[in-house]
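hey
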């Protein structure tokens, strides 16, 4: 026996309202997001903002003084790219639930996002840091201390 149309419409409207509120919360959170990453040589920390824009560069422990311009540039680019990738993955994880089909309203099938086209192929590759923690993001204190789990 199927539900009356009014009941199904009511459920759909309630789900739409909940989705709109969740999207608004997610947008607010994403506008405040930033990620900082150390270069592998630990000479540079790059920070990116919510749209992947570079918002900060720190040269750590005067290591840059002993680096060639090419080495320093490579460290900056490595750290900035890694921070941007973290931000892209964060956005992808935050927005993915909004593309899923509705469990309450079968007519709302969801939609597929081409994350690779949006962010590039590296966003879909396995993240060693994520898999090491069973999909849990790195604790905030690790970034604050400049700890990225590498020794």
């Amino acid at each position: 026996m199927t539900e009356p149309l009014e009941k199904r419409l009511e459920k759909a409207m309630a789900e739409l309202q909940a989705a709109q509120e969740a999207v608004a919360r997610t947008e607010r959170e994403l506008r405040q997001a930033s990620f900082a990453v150390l270069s592998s040589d630990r000479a540079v920390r790059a920070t990116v903002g919510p749209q992947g824009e570079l918002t900060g560069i720190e040269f750590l422990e005067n290591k840059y003084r002993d680096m060639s311009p090419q080495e320093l540039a490579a460290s900056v680019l490595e750290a900035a790219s890694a921070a941007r990738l973290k931000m892209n993955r964060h956005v992808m994880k935050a927005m993915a639930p909004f593309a899923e089909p509705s469990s309450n309203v079968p007519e709302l099938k969801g939609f597929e996002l081409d994350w690779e086209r949006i962010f590039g192929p590296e966003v879909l590759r396995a993240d060693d840091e994520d898999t090491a923690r069973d999909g849990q993001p790195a604790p905030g204190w690790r970034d604050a201390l400049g700890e990225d789990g590498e020794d």
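The CA atoms of residues 35 and 140 lie 10 Å apart. The longest helix spans residues 5-32.
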